[in-house]
Amino acid sequence: xxxxxxxxxxxxxxxxxxxxxxxxxxxxxxxxxxxxxxxxxxxxxxxxxxxxxxxxxxxxxxxxxxxxxxxxxxxxxxxxxxxxxxxxxxxxxxxxxxxxxxxxxxxxxxxxxxxxxxxxxxxxxxxxxxxxxxxxxxxxxxxxxxxxxxxxxxxxxxxxxxxxxxxxxxxxxxxxxxxxxxxxxxxxxxxxxxxxxxxxxxxxxxxxxxxxxxxxxxxxxxxxxxxxxxxxxxxxxxxxxxxxxxxxxxxxxxxxxxxxxxxxxxxxxxxxxxxxxxxxxxxxxxxxxxxxxxxxxxxxxxxxxxxxxxxxxxxxxxxxxxxxxxxxxxxxxxxxxxxxxxxxxxxxxxxxxxxxxxxxxxxxxxxxxxxxxxxxxxxxxxxxxxxxxxxxxxxxxxxxxxxxxxxxxxxxxxxxxxxxxxxxxxxxxxxxxxxxxxxxxxxxxxxxxxxxxxxxxxxxxxxxxxxxxxxxxxxxxxxxxxxxxxxxxxxxxxxxxxxxxxxxxxxxxxxxxxxxxxxxxxxx
Length: 524
Hints:
10-stranded mixed sheet; two-stranded antiparallel sheet; Rossmann fold
């Protein structure tokens, strides 16, 4: 009998590949590889030759050998981009090995990950491979430049992937509290690994109700931003606990699935299998949180290692809004003009008679912005305003009248020149010359007096601004006549020596004057 030889494929490539790009992405893939995840091929791509040598991943691609000479991208995304373009033939060869779905993991903000990951994603998408990007945003303490570069990298990744999961490293601090330097970055790598592992296991997990690549393509194809969460729970209400914790995962950068349209849901239980009621409870919770009318593709399986636990993994796509990576805390400052419009009946003395020599600008709505005004001065001005309003209401009233009169007189002086009228009418009507001249003199005197009074009020206002709170209280409590040095103790009292008064005020009882002409002994 002749020998029959069969040409069987050896080391058949998986349809799912996970590619780590740069330092952060490669660390995440190394973490996944150490966990022994089956059904997935791992690839690391880096410009740093030393980092590649330290990796245990069998498939490695050194990017930009001639460009960087194995020394890394030097935090420059353009170098990372050019390095990926130089090595794209090797990348394409690996992607063509039966790949149907690829995860591209990278840390945004650096050189290799930010620049090379979008190029690799673009080549995968051109080969009609379902392309999922999983990227991290740098910690705030890493600096503004890295976060700005990360924002640019995220936008470029969105252009070349079917779905993008964005993980904000700052959320790790919110969840775990104080983290050591090494521990924090290790957590970031772990979260990247969990995201890729979670999605791949949704597809590769052997389950009674299975989710295949077609289901994944239905949910993830050209979906834009995706959010993901995974959690385990046991005991009473384990289903509700698990789905709540999954939706509070650091993978859910937006902390909500509001607006989700399609969901991949994988439910795995141990010896204590999941019940129909628990499945219904989880589905209802997702529908409520997403706003209803969500298309849920579900897989249900078993894993004896979970014992009494239940594991929930959710991947949601839809309209979640944009993520502002470089957003900083906003300082809201109210324009003084808006405050004056709202409180037109209570004119602030400081704003009414303040000098107008400060530089001004106008915003898009035409509101004046005083550049010299500082936020810290607001409370001080409010203190002065309250004190003046409380003790000098009449002063505010007269001040408003004064300013109104000045405006009218100035307008009259501008629109009707008395001197011009005087020259035109001098030949025809000599009597009108005297009348107009007198009006001009009176108007000039009124303007001069008003300006002098305005200067006194301004000086008084500036003096008030310079007072501290203690001196201002003393200033309000002490009467004006005492501050002026007037002694009222020496004023002559109304008594019998003063013939004007008809009534006598003394230390004793009050009484009528004896020489009152209206009470004379000789009555007419």
